[in-house]
Amino acid sequence: MIIYRKSCANIASTIFIMKLNMNTIKYHKPYRLQWLKKYNEIKVTKLVLVSIFIGKYSDEVLYDVVSKHTSHLFLGFLWQFDRKIIYDGFRNRYTLVKDENFITLISLLSKQIYKNQLKLKGKK
After folding, report:
1. What percent of the chain lies above the pLDDT cut of 90?
2. Rounded Cα–Cα distance for residues 29 and 97 (Å)
């Protein structure tokens, strides 16, 4: 999952949706995203509601479904705005209040991501 402060959209990849066999919702007004691809637009026609769990933090987020391969979930400015996220650029962490508790989301280091990937491959 990537948190991207400059994106307006919350995006879920079609691969993610297909692998988890999730139900999608037809978009009532399809639109085009241009910033994801350098020279072409991507038509957004579906939405999906995804439950996310990160440590003590849980949430349900409505995502636009898009054919992309950079990450499975992409949290944009809408999620950050709706949850009144406070971003600390120096420490690269996001803080929010949920159920009167402060929750801080901290980025993983590349080394941590690599170790997690090895653990996941070992479990398969």
Report:
1. 13
2. 32
Ordered domains of the chain (ranges, CATH): 2-123 (2.40.70.10)
Handedness of CA 47, 57, 85, 74 (dihedral sign): negative
DSSP helix/strand/coil, 105: strand
How far CA 55 is from CA of 34, 45, 65, in Å, comes to 33, 32, 25
Residue 61, CA distances (Å) to 4, 33, 90, 96, 114 in order: 15, 19, 26, 15, 27
Quick: pLDDT tens for 22-47: 999 998 888 887 665 555 677 888 99
| Separation of alpha carbons 60 and 64, rounded Å | 13
pTM, rounded to two decimals: 0.71
CA distance 85 to 103: 10
**Residue 112: both structure tokens together:** 């941590």
* Helices and strands (DSSP H and E) totals, the chain: 3, 9
Greatest alpha-carbon pair distance for the chain in Å reads 44
